[in-house]
Design brief:
The structure is a homotetramer. Chain A is an alpha/beta fold and about 350 residues long. Chain A folds into two domains: about 210 residues, Medium-chain alcohol dehydrogenases, catalytic domain (Quinone Oxidoreductase, Chain A, domain 1); about 130 residues, Rossmann fold (3-Layer(aba) Sandwich), CATH 3.40.50.720. Chain A has ten helices and 17 strands. In chain A, strands 3, 5, 6, 7, 8, 16 and 17 form a seven-stranded mixed beta sheet that branches. In chain A, helix 5 runs parallel beside helix 6. Chain A is globular, with a radius of gyration of 20 Å. The two termini of chain A are about 20 Å apart. In chain A, about 65% of the residues are buried. The model of chain A has no long low-confidence stretch (mean pLDDT about 95). Chains in contact: A-B, A-C, A-D, B-C, B-D, C-D. Chains A and C meet through strand 13, strand 14 and strand 15 of A and strand 13, strand 14 and strand 15 of C.
Amino acid sequence: MTTFKGFAMKRLNETGWVEKEVPDCEPYDAIVRPTCVSPCTSDTHTVWEGAIGDRKDMVLGHEAVGIVEKVGSHVKNFKEGDKVIVPAITPDWDDEAAQRGFPSQTTEPLGGWKFSNFKDGVFGERFHVNLADANLALQPEELSDEAAVMLVDMWSTGMMGAENADIPLGGSVLVIGIGAVGLSAIAGAKLLGAGEIYAAGTRPISVKVAKKYGATNIINYKEGSIDQQVRDATDGAGVDSVIIAGGNLENTWKEAIASAKAGGTVSNVNYLSGADNVLIPRVEWGCGMSGIKITNGLCPGGRVRMERLASLALNKRADPELLVTHKFKGLEKIEEALYLMKDKPKDLIKPIVKIEE
Amino acid sequence: MTTFKGFAMKRLNETGWVEKEVPDCEPYDAIVRPTCVSPCTSDTHTVWEGAIGDRKDMVLGHEAVGIVEKVGSHVKNFKEGDKVIVPAITPDWDDEAAQRGFPSQTTEPLGGWKFSNFKDGVFGERFHVNLADANLALQPEELSDEAAVMLVDMWSTGMMGAENADIPLGGSVLVIGIGAVGLSAIAGAKLLGAGEIYAAGTRPISVKVAKKYGATNIINYKEGSIDQQVRDATDGAGVDSVIIAGGNLENTWKEAIASAKAGGTVSNVNYLSGADNVLIPRVEWGCGMSGIKITNGLCPGGRVRMERLASLALNKRADPELLVTHKFKGLEKIEEALYLMKDKPKDLIKPIVKIEE
Amino acid sequence: MTTFKGFAMKRLNETGWVEKEVPDCEPYDAIVRPTCVSPCTSDTHTVWEGAIGDRKDMVLGHEAVGIVEKVGSHVKNFKEGDKVIVPAITPDWDDEAAQRGFPSQTTEPLGGWKFSNFKDGVFGERFHVNLADANLALQPEELSDEAAVMLVDMWSTGMMGAENADIPLGGSVLVIGIGAVGLSAIAGAKLLGAGEIYAAGTRPISVKVAKKYGATNIINYKEGSIDQQVRDATDGAGVDSVIIAGGNLENTWKEAIASAKAGGTVSNVNYLSGADNVLIPRVEWGCGMSGIKITNGLCPGGRVRMERLASLALNKRADPELLVTHKFKGLEKIEEALYLMKDKPKDLIKPIVKIEE
Amino acid sequence: MTTFKGFAMKRLNETGWVEKEVPDCEPYDAIVRPTCVSPCTSDTHTVWEGAIGDRKDMVLGHEAVGIVEKVGSHVKNFKEGDKVIVPAITPDWDDEAAQRGFPSQTTEPLGGWKFSNFKDGVFGERFHVNLADANLALQPEELSDEAAVMLVDMWSTGMMGAENADIPLGGSVLVIGIGAVGLSAIAGAKLLGAGEIYAAGTRPISVKVAKKYGATNIINYKEGSIDQQVRDATDGAGVDSVIIAGGNLENTWKEAIASAKAGGTVSNVNYLSGADNVLIPRVEWGCGMSGIKITNGLCPGGRVRMERLASLALNKRADPELLVTHKFKGLEKIEEALYLMKDKPKDLIKPIVKIEE
């Protein structure tokens, strides 16, 4: 196979199928054939909101598991035929930013995000993985494709939100937004020792999973400001940690800061858009002296991250498949799945597309 | 009531009932009447192993919940009649060590441990609590006495073991020793994001609870060295974190260090006795350059700690009552409960004594 | 002495001398007679900008050293006649927020700030100190009053800015604003391992001290945006850490974020005023995924903090007296010193008033 | 040049010159020609103490700066002729341990140490560097060879000792051992905010540099136990942090633990030898509940580390050349320099050999 078919962003606001050459496999790289993929809200932002600017005929997608088709001459840990989990983020691990402790920021800010950003993504018959030894993980047999493909971005991003939130053991957490990432943040908050978990959201399908993942209180943002409801529920104390996984740039940040205790943490995992500035409310922030920290990050990638998330799933610490509401079969169904993601029907959390058993 | 009856260490190797004067209640202090107490292995070490040296007619016990009988003139948060959780460790929060971040080490090393160490403990009709505002916590109605009394030392100590173990999300943990503290360490490891949890122990009753608390693999130390079994189970990799909650000074530390990955952590919660030195095996420790950290601590005390542990119980993150295997009724049963703790029958994890409904 | 004279905020925009009753000395408290005080920019904000709302006849000032006049019945570490350093921030160390690790936020957000906020300050013949054992520190004989009074707020606040900035050993730092707090942040950055320190400011007297404290590059914000100058000086890389110790809410935060490397930290020590919101520039912040953390805090107080800062001064790690540009003698000169602080002449960093040798 | 001459360990207890083939330069690697090298105590341990077992004709040395002779096809950041600093430790940055945050432990424990351990070292006309983009750093023109070669192991190791010691700003530190690594630990402790620094050692040349690097008190271990002297000097308090950079396995660890405050840290940088076990004194360690942490590590390597240490030197935070007491010229002088290191005359800290101007 020298060319491959893929579902691409042809240009801003336009998608379609393309035929491209299979990329070269450099000494440390691999070529992978996806067995299961999942569209991400970011894919829709890329195509229809211009989130990363324009692209021509770029194959979309960054959530996949697959089978190794070819490895470079210096790859040691993987071989043709291996079933692998492919992290959405594939850093240059020898880079300056990785040495500083921020592998997802390699090459440039957010530079660890290569699939469907700087190169073709995973929605094709083949895709290229840089530094295969570091950026693939063996998929355990006991882990289904549906489960594994939820780890590569949703769990990794959402749980990072909890990791960045400095949750004290038995502390209280508020998660704003209960899409797939917010739900993963809830699972992460529970896994990292939260006592009370307040989840702000309204979609019934998401509320159901939020509770299964560990939410103890649901906040309906349509019934008043989130911070007021949090203060009411906590005798005025507020929460130790807030994770922002949704909302907008008009209200969400004000409500987040106003929900946190002095000394608490507001951790962002939302890809922010829609305004030039994020507004931190001065008074609620204690005039910049309340000790409320603001943290954020890009989805962690790499082999070890995937192995650890797989361990959580295998040991039943939480169930990744709870996020999967729609299943498709066959490469060509990627188009339908992506448009589903764009339209966000009420019963959707995440769709997946099985390409090969 | 000006005097009270209590079950005491009369001197080394001798216990008995004593009658003592109810202590003064200084401006920031409280006097509490216990409703439920639990003997601790430390109580037996104190009496029969001379762990803290000799004591005369010192009332034993440091695990209790109770009812506030009296508060000092400057106490703001509590009043007579309040149902309270009493942390085993009651620091001087304004002390130099507390300001440095180590409240359990106030006044002197381990100085936050006052009950049945520097003053009379909780196995009496009344006991004294220093800095009541800081060292009591309201007991939520939904939390039974049996559950609450497991928080004050067992959960607080065991879970600290997990907190000090630097467990990466999805990382692997080995807990050595599955008495009440080791089991709490397992619960803590699960609550702090562990994937695989190896538990080394053999008593069937403990193994059962270990699994309920989150252990994924049981290691029988009678079937070979712990580290060899851990290496075998992890393809030679070892674990990210080791928690020492039992064992001895001959083998345990060697096995612990030898079980950890380079860069991992060995976290001690065991009250060490039986030899002059803890032996860290030089070669297994990478000649002191493997990056394997050794951490430890004394049970965290204080109000906030108790509130957070109560939140974990109330939100069903884990069930403290799983530790309670034997229940007694009536103050006078403390004697029997303590001797049970000394004898450690096969079916025992922790006994409790209900003094008042 | 049952009454004392003090220089007060009579109401918004009005200052004057008042005569008040010496406060009661509760069991754990002390009454102190100041020997040297220093006005702070915050005092001027309090009077002339309404920063904390209105106050009636409240004695101003929170920077002092002095002599213990009286101690409460339960104070153990201090006695009448002791020469003491008085931290600007005097937490309730047994409070919930202190137990959570945030003593400066006790009672309520910023609640550790009591002098000239919730009670009379230090610009009088006597003042009251809560929890004396925890909130006073012996002033070493070798430490002059001029030096010691610079520790209680300027060094403690400024150096906290560096502590919150996650400076890697040999990393690069930008400090925006070179008033007394910004200069202390520079000293702190050097003491915490910074290699290059960029200082943004223009006043010649401050520039001179900035260099003595460790600044390696001076940035004149009048010659272009700070971030552009930082990028130019660092081959486009930016800096590891930014400390905001001045500037305004229009440009400073944009320039701060735009100066930081992905994964870096922006640490605020500026008391923010002048707008409803702090604007975080979305694109420069990597759409909330660049890993740039935002930290802040209120000046750390308490005995241990003062002892440690005194140790830095005594061991000549930096010289606090470099901040003192104007010296006055006599209680009544407080008025002149405060107005000097309000007018900020070119040659001023900090004035002090010696009240007693 | 297809072969090169080098000074080697021919077998245990025997050194000599060898002629070997210049290694292949794989796609990401480089071949370097040293301009200045320095023997390390480890080299003498390797040859005469069998510290790493036997080796045949292995070129010694891991401290060098040099000129790039050749780069692999995929190297982007360096080219022939570049003047480079070569870290003693050259990790596989894409490895599992590096992803876990422990790059010096790649491949296997201590596996980042490749020169004169797993492959030929730097005491030859040419040497091989793996992952050149990540494991070389440009040597700034203003930085002399003598200075730069002190960074690659001495500063990096010694300062890591301070980084691992959790020194609070203004805290007190004890450094045991004042060879080149201990002296670098003193410099590191000062750079990381220590107030008082106690240095235990006796050699006059080292004492002189210790004071220049920031030691405030010198402890002569011949005049009594170190911990007793530290307790005497600190009113019984002990120190916040202890760094072990020398001593033996009989007394040093006991004295180290006994010198630390409860909650403090003992950080090891000494390559331990001479006994099977490191003895942690049980009682002084608070029966394993004092909160005294024990940390350690292997010298950090890589490009960013070298750049940051160079920044410290260039910005005059400390002077690396203070460590250099003996200078030789010419490749063949390596032999003499190594034997000097073995014999340790009184006036020696570190020798260097200039090979090329």
